[in-house]
Specification:
- By secondary structure, the chain is mainly alpha-helical.
- It has two domains: about 110 residues, no CATH class; about 90 residues, Tetratricopeptide repeat domain (Serine Threonine Protein Phosphatase 5, Tetratricopeptide repeat, Alpha Horseshoe).
- The chain contains twelve helices and no strands.
- α6 runs parallel beside α8 and α10 packs parallel to α12.
- The chain starts with about 35 loop residues before the first helix and ends with a helix.
């Protein structure tokens, strides 16, 4: 069966009702209402146009101001996006050599530069707010950790954020390493737990949980350490770290 679109002429559609004709067969004009007075009455349409012109005339400055504001906002957003993109490209170019030094373990040159090309510290300062500047915080934190500058490492990694759950988890764990070296095992344990819970997975979470348990042992909290080990052996029983977790828990109760 074909479907008939609903229109004013379709079966069952409601039709306008005209008043009954008089005895002479004519319909009184004043009793038949039009559907749209503006379209059928030229005088009504002209009056409405006059009202619109008067509104524009009275509020001309306001309307012009609104238009200017909208144009300025659009132009400003475009200029800002262009600026951010350009800044990010400059930051990537600036940190290219520094990353090469970082990968080669030339950490002093990676951080401070080689005299010709800037180091990560300068990229972080001059290009903060860009993606490359954010990534420079991660490189800087790892470099500081390797250099034994644990507070600097923690501060740099704390400024870093990533949508990549593996990299972000790694950053939390490295912050935990820095706190453990600063003799703050409780804080370190919290960061290891945060790393394990951040999009938990079988590849990395077991290692972070093992680190959490060890940090809690260092903090003289064997009960909490046992819970961390229990979680590891329960949730990740097949992980290589599970065997060490069992051994460490067994040693706690001796």
């Amino acid at each position: 069966m074909s479907k008939i679109p609903y229109t004013g002429k379709a079966p069952g559609a409601r039709q306008p009702v005209r008043p009954a004709a008089g005895s002479d067969g004519t319909v009184p004009a004043e009793t038949y209402a039009t559907e749209n007075p503006l379209l059928e009455d030229p005088d009504a349409l002209a009056a409405r146009l006059v009202e619109s012109e008067e509104f524009v005339r009275r509020n001309r400055n306001l309307l012009v101001g609104l238009l200017v504001a909208v144009v300025a906002a659009v132009a400003g957003a475009f200029a800002y996006n262009y600026y951010r993109t350009n800044q990010n490209e400059q930051a990537q170019n600036a940190m290219f050599k520094a990353v090469q030094y970082w990968e080669a373990d030339s950490l002093a040159k990676a951080t401070k530069g080689d005299g010709k090309r800037p180091g990560l510290a300068k990229v972080v300062t001059e290009y903060s707010g860009t993606k490359a500047g954010n990534l420079a915080n991660f490189y800087t934190g790892v470099a500081a950790l390797k250099q034994g500058k644990f507070q600097d490492a923690y501060s740099a990694l704390e400024k870093f954020s990533s949508d990549d759950y593996l990299v972000q988890s790694r950053a939390y764990a490295l912050m935990g390493d820095a706190q453990l070296e600063l003799n703050k095992p409780k804080k370190a344990a919290e960061l290891y737990a945060k790393a394990a819970d951040h999009n938990a997975n079988e590849q990395f979470s077991p290692g972070y949980l093992l680190k959490q348990g060890i940090a809690l042992e260092t903090a003289k909290d064997p009960a909490a350490a046992a819970k961390a080990y229990d979680r590891l052996t329960t949730d990740y029983a097949a992980a290589p770290e599970a065997a060490e977790a069992r051994q460490r828990k067994a040693a706690l109760v001796q």
